[in-house]
Structures are given as C-alpha cells and as structure tokens.
Amino acid sequence: MITISNLIKYFHKGSVNEILALDGISLEVKDGDFITVIGSNGAGKSTLLNCIAGTYAIDSGSIKASGQDITVWPEYKRAKLIARVFQDPLLGTCASASIEQNLALAYKRGQKRGLAFGVKSRDRGFFRQELKQLGLGLEDRLLDTAGLLSGGQRQALTMLMATLIRPDILLLDEHVAALDPKTAHQVLELTREIVKQKKLTTLMVTHQMKHALQLGNRLMMLHRGKIILDVRDEEKGKLEVKDLLAKFYEVQGEELSNDKMLLA
Amino acid sequence: MTWYAVLGALEQGLVYGIMAVGVYLTFRILDFPDLTVDGSLPLGASITALALTSGINPFIALVLSIAGGFLAGMVTAILNTKLKVLHLLASILTMIALYSINIRIMDGPNVSLLAVDTVFDPLIELGIPGHLASTVVFIGVAALIVIGVVWFLYTELGMSILATGDNSQMITSQGVNTHTMIILGVGLSNALVALSGSLIAQNQGASDVNMGVGTIVAGLASVIVGETVLGDKTIPRAIIAVLAGSVIYRLAIAMALGLELGEFSVSPSDLNLITAILVVIALTAPTIKKKLKLS
Ligand SMILES: Nc1ncnc2c1ncn2[C@@H]1O[C@H](COP(=O)(O)OP(=O)(O)OP(=O)(O)O)[C@@H](O)[C@H]1O
Ligand SMILES: [Mg+2]
Predict the structure, then answer these.
(1) Closest chain A residue to B166 measured between Cα atoms?
(2) How far, CA to CA in Å, does A153 sit from each of A58, A166, A178, B94, B206?
(3) Is A20 in the pocket of ligand 1 (CB under 6 A)?
(4) Mind listing the pLDDT tens digit for each residue in A197-243?
(5) How far apart, in whole angstroms, are the C-alpha atoms of residue B248 and residue B242?
(6) pTM over 0.80
(7) Per the structure, how many domains does chain B have?
(8) Domain map (residue ranges) of chain A
(9) What is the pLDDT of residues B137-178, one digit of tens each?
(10) Domain A2-93+167-263: what homologous superfamily?
C-alpha cells in the first residue's frame, strides 16, 4: 500500500526556469492495485514514479509505503520495498555482467551484501526455471553478458529481475515504449502474467490508451502535475479510448480558452 | 639488453603491477579517474619508512601501509560522494595533501632504509641473492593480489562495485548504496597502491616523497598496454593483463633508456613525458581510427 499526501515537486525551484512538476498529488494505492497512468508529455508521470522510488527528493508532502513513512528514505533503501523497470532497456541491467550475475544482483535486492560468492550454484536451477518462463531461450545463456541481448530481451530480463524477490510495489515507466510492436506485446503479456501471479501492487505509465484500458484495475490521468481522472474496477471497465481522448481534449481545450482569455 | 636488465624490468613490472591493478579498479571498474595514487604510493613508502626505522616488523609495516592507502582512497571518495567535489579534483586535493602528510610521517623528504630489516630478509637468510629474493617476493605478492582481487570481484560486494561503475541507476534500484561502493572501491585501489609503494621502498632501500610522481600515468599505461596485448574479455584475464602490461611497460622503458640518437640519449627524467605521450596515443587511437574511417 502507498499513501501519498499533498506531494509537491519543483524543478529548478527559485530560478526563472522553475517548473512545478507535481502540484499537490494525493493518492491512495491499495494492496493489489494495478494502476495504469496516462497523460500528455510533461504531465509529471515519470516524476511521480521517480518521487515514489526516491530518485528525486520532494519539496513537500509525504509518502508512506507498507506502513512506513519513506518520505526521506534514500533511493537505495526504498529498493527493499520498490522494484522498477525503466523506459530505457539499458538502464535496468548491468551490461558487462552476465545474465546470471544480473539475476544474482537482483536476488539480493534490499539485502546486505557480503563476501559470499555473488552467484550461488544452488540458485542456478531457479534462475534457469524463471528465465524459461520468458520463452526467449535465455535459460541456456546464463553466462552471456547482458550487453549482448536485444532491447526486448533486456527488458524482459529486467522485468524478471524486478520481480525475482516479490516487491511491495512495482513501478513501470513506459517500459515497452522502446520496443517493436511484437516484442512490446510479449513484454506486456509477461507483465500482466507476473503481476497477476504474484498479486503485485503496480503503477504502469503508458502512452498507449489501449494498454491503459486493457491492463490493470484502475486508471489515472495526470495533467500538469495533477491527477485529473482516477477510475477503478467496473467504472474503468466501461471506459473506452474515445472517453480518454475526450478528457484529453477537454483539459487541453481549457488551456486553449484560458490562453484566449489572456489574449482578449 | 642484458639479462640483468630483463630481470630488473620483471621485478619492477611486478611490484608496480600491484599499483596498476589498483589503478584498474578505479579507472576501469569504477570509472573513477583517481590521481590520489601519486600520493598514496609514497604514503605506503613513508609509513613503511617510519615503521621500519621504529623497529616494527616489516610485514606489519606492509599491513600499516595498506591501511594508510585505504584511508587515503576513502578521503578522496568521501570528498566526491558526500561533499560533491568532482572526482578528478577530489583526488588531486588528496594527492596534494598527502605530499605534506608524507613529509610529516617521515619527518623529512626522504629516509634511507639500508640498515633496517625488510620483507626480503627471510629469503636472503636462506642464501638467495638479494635481487632474486625481491623478485620471488614480488611474484608471490602479485600472485596473491591477482587471486584476491579476482575472487573479490566475484563476491556479492565485488559484483556490486562492478555494477556501480557500469550502471549506477540499476544497482541503486537493487538496494545498493553506490556511495559506499565507491568509497570501498577507491579505498581498496589505494590500499594496493600503498602496498606497492611499501614494497618499492623496501626494495630500493629508501623512501622519497617524490617517488610518486607519474604513478598514475605508469598505471594507466600498464592497464592500456595489458588490454591491448591480452584483452579484457573476462575479469581474471583483465587483471592478469594489467600485471603483464606493467611488465611489458617496464621492459619498454628499459629499452628506451638505452636509446641514443646521435648526441641525444633518453634520460630517466624523460620517462614521464614518453609515458604521457604513449597514454595519449593509446587513449585517442580508437577515436582517431573512427574519424579516419568516417572521412
Ligand atoms: N530532471 C529534471 N530536471 C528538470 N526538469 C525536469 C526533470 N524531469 C522532469 N522535468 C520537468 O518536469 C515536468 C514533468 O516531467 P515528466 O518527465 O514527469 O513528464 P512525463 O509525464 O513523464 O512526460 P513523458 O510522457 O514525456 O515522459 C516536465 O515539465 C519536465 O520538463
Ligand atoms: Mg516520462
């Protein structure tokens, strides 16, 4: 569970370039919620995920996760609770390390690391079995370095790494946007399966209305750092692409007419 | 070149190779260009000088030097991670500070160690001649260091340090504090450099505050020569390559020192210039090759 209260995040605060990226976000994510997050470019979606993960410090407000106030926790400490997959396939894996080393690094997420061997022979069977689920043949390539893999393979591996130890919260930021349509579909199916199987609390940012409607039990639209739509369950089931587009145009139209008023 | 010169180059290559492995840890593994080494090599020598002239066992002097080097590396890394000083500048600051510290430790710019016990004595007592004894010790220590560093880089911690240099966002999201990894890695690197400095001082029979000048270029040259000759496909191979690179580099220097072009002959003080030019060529060769291909 995540409880966000009145989160405000500026970039370049106090300078002429000041940007109010998140404008008082309050949000309650229930255990098992799978929220798809949409919104135009610059709406604040990535910033919201980065603030939850601790990549960015926030200006005010509070963030609670799994019953703890994590507002001032550094990013590495939040990794105990939170796992992520990034838009850039290169960000999620360590290119010079082998597939099994990457998995071993992820298998210790949030735990102390010592002088034991990084890859334990007893874990190899488990890694193979998990890789097999991806259906990409990676189970036979444990010793290949991750840098040799294609973007889609790396993203699938990252997805697996993020969920190898069950995270309390899974954050996905346009994680299929850099993939070709077929691979994107595969990784999305994988996401759906893993989230369902492990009952993960998930936030998934996407620009594909279709994906936002097909996946998850809850849908959120961000605009200029505010949540302007938040629907769940049955109500979400009834939504269609045209409803979302209408909402987009509505807020953008508002902006236009505001501009007109200013000009008038 | 005489056999004596070859043996000398092997000896130097091995003992400076330990330093080069340290440089490899920062330069290649952590992607942290660290000039602290120009100060931590003489730091190892200075601590050793103080210890040996105070009658401390030479093997304990090695341990003290290692600890001193680790601390020096930590200072650089903390300046960089916690106080946000640019890594290059942070390491220059530590290096400069070490110049003063080393003179304080030795209570002067140099100390002669001819009349004290060294780590080579046990072998010399067995009847092995001095220059062979040092080579044997250096082979032993270098082998231990290679095995130790390779082992470490396959442990959970070592892998986390590797990942910190490769993809800090990834390893942070796996719950690793990258600052701690950088402090540990730069510390270890300088511990090796100081160990090298301690052995060099004991071998030379002297410690000098200026003996560190050019350490970083020699280290880089060894790393690059090793990569070029042996490659860096796997970690064991890369580390052995650094050591081999250091030996090859010392051989090349020995040959260069014999070089005479009419009136002109290469003197030891030209070595830093030659090495710097070599490193520049090696560093820029890939870029220049690419440019030539493109045009
Ligand atoms: N690191 C940063 N430094 C300065 N400004 C930033 C930074 N990250 C985001 N911003 C700004 O904050 C606002 C929100 O950006 P954010 O990346 O969260 O948008 P987004 O909804 O993820 O957009 P997109 O769909 O294009 O990914 C934008 O105006 C952006 O320019
Ligand atoms: Mg974004």
Answers:
(1) A94
(2) 34, 21, 12, 44, 57
(3) no
(4) 999 999 999 999 999 999 999 999 999 999 999 999 988 888 888 88
(5) 10
(6) yes
(7) 1
(8) 2-93+167-263, 96-148
(9) 999 999 999 999 999 999 999 999 999 999 999 999 999 999
(10) P-loop containing nucleotide triphosphate hydrolases (3.40.50.300)
Higher pLDDT, B2 or A210: A210
ipTM score assigned to the predicted complex: 0.90
Chain A interface residues (partner B, CB cutoff 8 A):
53, 74-77, 79-80, 82-84, 86, 90-97, 101, 104-106, 108-111, 113-119, 161
Answer whether B156 sits within 8 Å of A101, measured CB to CB: no
Q: Do B177 and A83 touch (CB under 8 A)?
A: no
Residue-number span of the structural domain to which B20 is assigned? 3-209
Question: Which one, of A170, A169, A189, lies nearest residue A179 by Cα?
Answer: A189
Residue minimizing CA distance to atom 19 of ligand 1: A42
Given a contact cutoff of 8 angstroms between Cβ atoms, the answer to whether A187 and A176 are in contact is: yes
Give which of A102, A100, A97, A141 is closest to A123, Cα–Cα: A100
* B185 close contact with A: CB closer than 8 A: no
Mutate one of A96, A107, A154, A157 to test the B interface: name it (highest B CB count within 10 A): A96
- Establish if B64 belongs to a structural domain: yes
Q: Is the distance from the beta carbon of residue A47 to the nearest atom of ligand 1 less than 6 Å?
A: yes
Instruction: Report the distance separating Cα B101 and Cα B94, nearest Å.
Output: 10
